[in-house]
Amino acid sequence: MAGITLTDVVLVLNRTMILDRLSLAIPPNGITALVGPNGAGKSATLRVIDGLLVPARGSLTVPGTRRAFVFQKPALIRASASANVALGLAALGLSRTERRARTGAALARVGLAHRANDPATRFSGGEQQRLALARAWAARPDLLLLDEPTANLDPGATDLVEALVAEMAAEGTKVVLVSHNLAQVARLAADVIVLARGRAVEHGPTRTTLLSPRTPEARAYLDGELPWSSLAAAS
Amino acid sequence: MTETIHETFARLMTLDRDVLAIAWLSLRVSLTAVAIGLLLGIPLGAFLAVTRFRGRSALVGLLNAFMGLPPVIVGLVLYLVLSRSGPLGSLGLLFTPGAMVAAQAMLATPLVAALTRQVVADAEDHLGEQLRSLGLSAPRRAGVLVYDTRFSLVTTALAAFGRAISEIGAVLVVGGNIDGHTRTMTTAISLETQKGDLSLALALGIVLIALVVTVNAVAALLRGHAVRAYG
Amino acid sequence: MVVPRRGFLTLGLLALFGTVAPASMDRARAEPASIVVASTTSTEQSGLFKHILPAFEAKTGIAVKVVALGTGQALDAARRGDADVALVHDRPAEDAFVAQGFAKARFDVMYNDFVLVGPKTDPAGARGTDITAALKRIAAAKAPFVSRGDRSGTHSAELRSWKEAGIDLPAVKGEWYRDVGQGMGPALNTASALDAYILADRGTWLAFKNRGDLAILVEGDKRLFNPYGVMLVNPDKHPTVKAKEGQAFIDWLVSPEGQASIAAYRIGGEQLFFPSANVSPVTKAKP
């Protein structure tokens, strides 16, 4: 699969410029992280890639046929866990048997097979997010878009979600991850894109980019977010 | 006054089969009208909640206004339409329970549609993006959101039932208050009031209220049971 | 199972339709023969129909559905073809109905009479046997008077009586004259609450329960005679009219059996309606 490219993408919402001639080239494999301060346009970029938001100008190439999106707040309906997973398969035109098989496999994969018939809205935050991942994975996506998937979770639940994301990426699913948790970015991502004011200001391998940013915008953001980088500078 | 109340309870004890038949007719007519209202109103309301098109907000405004449609106007319009001299006169529906069902369905449908639209739009706020990302078409999104909000929609159905069973303006005009045929609780109460038999009218009123309370209680029980099972 | 109990509400709806809709829809169809009779509130509210109809229905198997309206409205409904038979009490309006071709003939059925009802204390001094004298005294005293005001037969009779008393109602009308625009029952309720005078048909008055301090003050004046006529709506005007069944009802009403049934209806020992049928129609349309 070729990579995702955005060229001079302009997105305006409610008369506010969200993406300002954003250009990106995301590599075809592994996990790519999008970081940057609030309002930089990270979530908007994910939505443009998924087609949920349509840019006013610019061009966009997203290869692959199947995308899946996991939001910060897992959007679950008042139904059983398995019904929520099956919802992800509703638009794929699969047979009933195939849907059941995939639903069962997806629940087993995230460790929720034993709770298949329980109401999803009564799950804990971590279980809900794993369920959302199961729903995403059941569709066998080429591209998995994650918008701060662990922002509301405790460390234990975060570990479980991270492990699942790493596995899926290892199996060949391209992952684009928006996260403010730079430790998580360091654990998962191969490369990092830093966004600021609707533009990509820096893009490089995770370690290099996080430890020695080249642009002042990236440095300003990372200084605020990474306590250890300032500690490292002081020592 | 105390004499009337005393008499009312005496009458309650001796209510006969006629009253049961009237109560049963009221219940059947209103439940059928509400069922039709739900069948038409829920899809309409859900559709308005998940789609955006020109004139949509005007339609929503109209629907909200129609929640307060005066029953007697609905009855009058339907009377003119169903009259033998009217456009649908050949159906022979005037002065039948069918005409009363139609009238109450006309009152229930906008109410159901407007309340459904609000409930589904609220659910759309936090689920809509995910559903669109899953590639679901507008009708499917509407369906999923209706399913998601089904417990709130029970309240909508009860509101519609309350409006249907308590109205008199429409059923009186299109039903004709025919004894044993189109006499409902409300038209019977009105008739007994007119005849000056206030204690009987009051006794019938108590039966009507009991009917409404019972239907609401049954719905609340079913809803509670479903919510416990499905959260 | 993907959604084990998805069908919860769907089932509920289906159950509604399964039981409710057919029940209410079938009822109209299941009755083999029925006619709609547009009649007056006085006949319905006095309880006359409840008394006489079972005999007719048992004999012929024809169900009679009575829609009780004011005479004017009842004739309007008949004119639109919404009723098969009209049984009303406003002779001039009935004659016009026949003259316009909406019915081919009018038959006398019965009569009762109007009574002037008022407070037992009779502040205007209306008590007596002369309706015009009574109305003159009420107008002079400006004593509260409740009028139907609904184009009913009773309303017509009231307006005729004012005219015969030589009173120009529009000129003298004031606070004291309450035009309620409702049926006999509600008008009596209003009169009872206001201790007002009112012209009522005897049948509704006898069946009326919320009398308060009201009593009959004037009765027996020949001018208060209140004849009822019955007409089959002309099937040439409205082909949907059930002429055979409608005529069967009229024939029964004017038959000795129907007339006896009307005469037998009593409240508290008092007869409400007096049979008056001639076998031949009283008014016939011009050919």
TrEMBL record, chain A:
<keyword id="KW-0547">Nucleotide-binding</keyword>
<comment type="similarity">
    <text>Belongs to the ABC transporter superfamily.</text>
</comment>
<dbReference type="GO" id="GO:0005524">
    <property type="term" value="F:ATP binding"/>
</dbReference>
<dbReference type="InterPro" id="IPR003593">
    <property type="entry name" value="AAA+_ATPase"/>
</dbReference>
<feature type="domain" description="ABC transporter">
    <location>
        <begin position="4"/>
        <end position="222"/>
    </location>
</feature>
<dbReference type="InterPro" id="IPR017871">
    <property type="entry name" value="ABC_transporter-like_CS"/>
</dbReference>
<keyword id="KW-0067">ATP-binding</keyword>
<dbReference type="Pfam" id="PF00005">
    <property type="entry name" value="ABC_tran"/>
</dbReference>
<dbReference type="InterPro" id="IPR027417">
    <property type="entry name" value="P-loop_NTPase"/>
</dbReference>
<dbReference type="InterPro" id="IPR015854">
    <property type="entry name" value="ABC_transpr_LolD-like"/>
</dbReference>
<dbReference type="InterPro" id="IPR003439">
    <property type="entry name" value="ABC_transporter-like_ATP-bd"/>
</dbReference>
<protein>
    <submittedName>
        <fullName>ATP-binding cassette domain-containing protein</fullName>
    </submittedName>
</protein>
Automatic annotation (TrEMBL), chain B:
<dbReference type="InterPro" id="IPR035906">
    <property type="entry name" value="MetI-like_sf"/>
</dbReference>
<comment type="similarity">
    <text>Belongs to the binding-protein-dependent transport system permease family.</text>
</comment>
<keyword id="KW-0472">Membrane</keyword>
<feature type="transmembrane region" description="Helical">
    <location>
        <begin position="198"/>
        <end position="222"/>
    </location>
</feature>
<dbReference type="InterPro" id="IPR049783">
    <property type="entry name" value="ABC_perm_TupB-like"/>
</dbReference>
<feature type="transmembrane region" description="Helical">
    <location>
        <begin position="151"/>
        <end position="178"/>
    </location>
</feature>
<dbReference type="InterPro" id="IPR000515">
    <property type="entry name" value="MetI-like"/>
</dbReference>
<keyword id="KW-0812">Transmembrane</keyword>
<keyword id="KW-0813">Transport</keyword>
<feature type="transmembrane region" description="Helical">
    <location>
        <begin position="88"/>
        <end position="108"/>
    </location>
</feature>
<keyword id="KW-1133">Transmembrane helix</keyword>
<feature type="transmembrane region" description="Helical">
    <location>
        <begin position="62"/>
        <end position="82"/>
    </location>
</feature>
<dbReference type="Pfam" id="PF00528">
    <property type="entry name" value="BPD_transp_1"/>
</dbReference>
<feature type="domain" description="ABC transmembrane type-1">
    <location>
        <begin position="23"/>
        <end position="219"/>
    </location>
</feature>
<feature type="transmembrane region" description="Helical">
    <location>
        <begin position="21"/>
        <end position="50"/>
    </location>
</feature>
Automatic annotation (TrEMBL), chain C:
<dbReference type="InterPro" id="IPR006311">
    <property type="entry name" value="TAT_signal"/>
</dbReference>
<feature type="domain" description="PBP">
    <location>
        <begin position="29"/>
        <end position="257"/>
    </location>
</feature>
<protein>
    <submittedName>
        <fullName>Extracellular solute-binding protein</fullName>
    </submittedName>
</protein>
<dbReference type="Pfam" id="PF12849">
    <property type="entry name" value="PBP_like_2"/>
</dbReference>
<feature type="signal peptide">
    <location>
        <begin position="1"/>
        <end position="23"/>
    </location>
</feature>
<dbReference type="InterPro" id="IPR024370">
    <property type="entry name" value="PBP_domain"/>
</dbReference>
<dbReference type="InterPro" id="IPR052738">
    <property type="entry name" value="ABC-Tungstate_binding"/>
</dbReference>
<keyword id="KW-0732">Signal</keyword>
